[in-house]
Fold:
Amino acid sequence: MDFKLFLATLAGKILAFVIGVFGGGATAAPGLYALKIDPNFVSKLSKQIPQGSIIISGTNGKTTTARLTYDILSIKYQVIHNRQGSNLLRGIASTMITNCSIFGKLKFDLALWEVDEATLPEAINNVFPKTIVLLNLFRDQLDRYGEVDSTRVKWQKALRTLPKNTTLILNCDDPGISILEKSFAGKKIFFGVSDSKVRLPAVATVADVKHCLVCAAGLIFTAQLSAHLGHYRCPSCNFKRPIPSISATNIIFKPDFSTSISLNLGNQTSTVNYPLPGLYNIYNVLAASATALNYGIDLATVIEKIKKFSTAFGRFQKTTINDRELLTFLIKNPAGANEVLRIISNLSKVNLLIILNDKIADGRDVSWIWDTDWEILKNKVDNVFISGIRRFDMALRLKYAGFKLSKNNVYKEVNYSILNALQKLSTKDTLIILPTYTALLDVQKTLSRAGEKVTKWQKQ
Amino acid sequence: MAKTMTLNICHLYPDLMDTYGDKGNTVTFQKRCRWRGIDVKVANISVGQPLSNFDFDFYFFGGGQDKAQTIVGIDLQKKKRHLETAVNNGAVLLSICGGYQLLQKYFKTKTGEIIKGIGLFDAFTVGSDERMIQNLLVEINSELEQDIKDSYQTTDYRLSTTNLIGFENHSGKTYLGKNVQPLGRVIKGAGNSGEDKTEGAVYKNAFGCYLHGSLLPKNPHFADYLIVKSLERRYGKVKLKPLNDEIEWLAHKSAIDRTRSQT
Structure:
């Protein structure tokens, strides 16, 4: 018997039990302690999973993609997935502790891990992935992650160590992702958006890749879809957007925040309607579909699951309180926030509550709000309310974006800001709430207290 | 009143040095001019575009990724003479982080590679393993203090501080030479090197610093100081129309509160 593993499992389980009793939300702690006792805890348990592991990583969309992939794969497989847990190695360990026997035995066919960008190399070393899905790389919380270029260099190093029977599933529209195929000799599957235009208002771009990552010449974009995502080629070497084997065309964004696409797989094309807004969710849908298809799920079943999917909590959520509709979109970096603003600016009239925090999980540097194109909303906004720790930075940003706002609409308490904003709206109005990550947790509390008439409520 | 005053702004390498949210600086400079009826023209000047055909009053140079910085560093050599002449003739320049580093003599990376700067500031930077990432509070150089107080006009706020607040995120350590003054003294944070309590550099009307945030929106006194200095070369001493800066100062103060709570 592996005594270290047994001790790590036991300690983790006891800690998880204690936390459970006291109602704490610290999902990473049991894993953290188990890893302290046995640093190989995750790798030992990973070896027990017959179909191996799938890793999903990228700056934006990994939670939604992982959940959708889980939904689809669960039809055929028993899947272990860090749905509740954190996306660091300790979160994976915690998920394993919850699901394994006291002797550290796991009974699953397949593991699906959402992995933080900075954790990817460490995760690769510990979970021995058979498949790695890489969505995108955007500037994000530079105080935590550093620059996009340096993250990519770390990924490239890690990918070079992969055995050849691994499969990489890559977003071909992000030149910073497609370049990764050069670091790996095995099977690659590309997904992307093949429409050359998206019918959303343009935003000031925050492109993080403008030059060829092979020869440093300026890239030519024949289509720029979102930030540096699009159809590109290098004018001086042979680097260009790979042709995707799974793609979306004929994109229609609907007023009720649902989307219609043609999903193209080889010479098969199917029209799919699903209840998620925005361009970024198209990439999530494509990535999940590519993964599921690669694991032997048929296209019809994949489409059925996509149609019924409801998004990860707070990424996009509809609630109704006192006849007023609330729409919550998580914002956390310029590329993601810009896509959210593009969706919102499609509305004729907007009532907005922005909640800006600067805790570690939000990024302590709030500079990113200046890289976000709030200007596109200035003529659409009826009422704007602001809350969060850095509410005055946000108010200042909107002032310089040309919004008319009053100091009276800036609130210290998140709870109060939501209730007060609702009070100032007429019935049938919609309040759009844009919280950063830790602010989202406060929003959840208020909504769960106030929301008797919750139409769409998905508990974590 | 005399005819409308005009300022010409040059945003240096906005497409490459745009990673750290420094865009708020040019937005703020423009808006605070326009709110006072001062006309502003902005030119974006990047790789391969010469500066020599222009006479700019204010240059802005922000921070970017290391790779972009290498590309910019090479092109900047071609703009060296123009920038030197402009600054020696009184033009105003604000550079932040990567931009600040490239205006120094050189940047020595951790691996010992030398990236040449243009030496506008008598300073150099050495790469380190130490990450200086936090809110940064700076007491302004006493020689600038009175000038800033004199140039700042506001409707409802009595200027009690000329401190600057921002967010630093760098691992390069900057050391100043004799021919340059620090922008200020570090109250909280690391600043230039984390060793000597200095932050930033001043040479004539050229300023360099590590303050992201963006810097100018929540330091309106410094924004106005740069505007006054930019106008001075063309129009002499100008008294700016006061603005209501209540939100600016609330943001300034709340950022300082966060600084004090950091360990």
User: Anything to note?
Assistant: Chain A has two domains: 53-77+110-308, 317-450. The two ends of chain A are 36 Å apart (CA to CA).
